[in-house]
Amino acid sequence: MLFPYTESRQIELRPAGVKDAAKVYDILFRLGHSGLPVIDRFVDTFGQGLSACFLVHRKDTGEVVGFSTLSELAPAGHLKADVHLAGQPDEIRMDVVALTVNFAFAMWRTRKVYFHATDPGIENLGFAEPHALMVEAEAVLPRHTYFHGQVLDVHVFAIYREAWDVHGVDLLKHIV
User: Fold this and answer.
1) Which keywords does UniProt give here (predicted)?
2) Residue 147 has what DSSP assignment?
3) What single DSSP character describes residue 109?
4) pTM over the 0.90 mark
5) What is the pLDDT along the chain (176 residues), one digit of tens a residue?
6) Residues near 84 by Cβ (< 8 Å), separated by ≥ 6?
7) Rounded distance, CA 35 to CA 89, Å?
8) What is the CATH number of domain 11-171?
């Protein structure tokens, strides 16, 4: 049985609600996300379609450095995770991704958690060996997204529950 941890030694995931929408908007804006609606519309629709949303707080500074979400929970047992961090080292990214993925497996009958990325490497998830073994490249959506004047491929990565039970639980023992 997995426990839905929301903090590691380095970070804490705090539930985000409508009152946090402006902060999330600011993070997305600073990261250069195109296609953001005006802030009033973003606030009005914040949280729609999300199963979970967390602000990421660094424990050493108390600073909000990003957010993570879980969405598109499907009857087939999979859902999508997104992690948005501004200028953080891989160790912070790994903690955020690990806690977000673990939360999904602990809270729902989830078979797999998937991520979309424009970079083909799994390094963006922050996992090093041996934990990188639990990440599977599943698909490439050619020329799927437009960002800063470029049409980019989207790479779909997945972490399956079976792999999480082997590598993820071990990883959690080291970070929480």
Assistant:
1) Acyltransferase, Transferase
2) E
3) -
4) yes
5) 799 999 999 999 999 999 999 999 999 999 888 788 999 999 999 999 999 999 999 999 999 999 999 999 999 999 999 999 988 998 999 999 999 999 999 999 999 999 998 888 887 788 877 888 899 999 999 988 887 788 999 999 999 999 999 889 889 999 99
6) 27, 28, 31, 66, 67, 68
7) 26
8) 3.40.630.30
